[in-house]
From TrEMBL:
It is found in: Cytoplasm. Homodimer. It comes from Methylomarinum roseum. Its main location: cytoplasm. GO terms for cellular component: cytosol. This is tRNA (guanine-N(1)-)-methyltransferase. The keyword GTP-binding does not apply. It is an enzyme of class 2 (transferase).
Amino acid sequence: MRFDVVTLFPQMVEDAARNGVTGKAIERDIVRLTTWNPRDYTHDNHKTVDDRPYGGGPGMVMKYQPLLDAVNDAKKQGLSGDSKVVYLSPQGKPITQALIGETTDVSQLILVAGRYEGVDERFIANVCDDEWSLGDYVISGGELAALIVIDAATRMIPGVLGDENSAQQDSHMHGLLDCPHYTRPERGELGDVPEVLLSGNHAAIERWRMKQALGRTWLRRPDLLKNIELTAEQTVLLEEFKTEVDVN
């Protein structure tokens, strides 16, 4: 898969992306990352990418022409024609695991990182296929959002993680939060590992993990349960969890 980021701070994106899971995927050529600086597509000595908004008001607005030219060059590099252009802004739809999963359907994802007060609306309306947001808050630019999208999407590409099941067990993959995890020592000053995890009974372990995932979701993100239809077994497990845990 190919990621292209249109950004005024290409070094920021490139440096951060070359670490961890994403960095290893780039080294192994499973994913490709290219950055495009809109300033390279300006035609004045000052490399101007922004201007005052029509109608007045505070701040500056990014001009659409440098962004358009950068996106067009990115598409030429992709060649397949199977690309998606996403503008990252506080006004977009919330980024979810399901939304990230849709990125695996395209071979090229072009992420546009806005700055200042935003970008010319004509660019968003005519060039971008979608608009995504990290959440209901504002940060100084879309670079951090682009890095999050790249990391989350890369994890879902076959061959990236050492164990193919790792991504499938992540929180939100199936609408629930993940269950608790433990490692050595078995017993210590902070408590003991639940006995069921030491039992070797895989059926009991899976049942415990599902119960904990359901319960943790109920405690921390009850809104998520409204979006999934629980099986009969899951309903029983959730009720068991409620009777076992003192929420006060």
